[in-house]
């Protein structure tokens, strides 16, 4: 599925 | 990366450095909730599962390792260090944090971002972080006097998520243009839980008085 939002955040 | 997110990450890092400094220099964890530290270890371990599978940047990997490492180190100091563990106010740290873990896990099963293991655990970590400070706030209310470093630690920890709220607003208008209900509402709840602490912290700072939370 889509990767969770703002995965590039800590 | 925007200035709000960078400021948020640096504030979060600073809060952990302040706490580690307090424990290492005073060899005491009086006034610190071990339960909140345990919850944060859980937050980082369930949120950074993609640490070795998804690469974003050196910064991202480094910060995740630092957050996991420092939170485990703080847990170890409070739980096992022969001198520090004697100073843990176990009787005051009475919040039933296992209820928080169970509640957030059930919530993540009911309202996950996506029905996969990593996404349910990521959602769990977002919900859990929103309430992770509760044992610490309860402990502060029971503590007679709150030392400066402990006050600064909690203030910085609350301020970082407030900066993340600004980061989400900025990203909404500049790049994502989508509503991110789960982190946004959780972040709002998390920041709101600090509201009265922020009020008394700023009051004590302005009046140069010792920080005291009403029981």
TrEMBL record, chain B:
Keyword Transmembrane helix applies: yes
Locations listed in the record: Endoplasmic reticulum membrane
Keyword set, alphabetical order: Endoplasmic reticulum, ER-Golgi transport, Membrane, Protein transport, Receptor, Transmembrane, Transmembrane helix, Transport
GO process terms (BP): protein retention in ER lumen; protein transport; vesicle-mediated transport
Transmembrane domains' residue ranges: 55-77, 98-115, 121-140, 152-170, 182-202
One GO CC term on file: endoplasmic reticulum membrane
Membrane topology classification: Multi-pass membrane protein
Keyword Endoplasmic reticulum attached: yes
GO MF entry, a single one: ER retention sequence binding
Family: Belongs to the ERD2 family.
Name of this chain's protein: ER lumen protein-retaining receptor
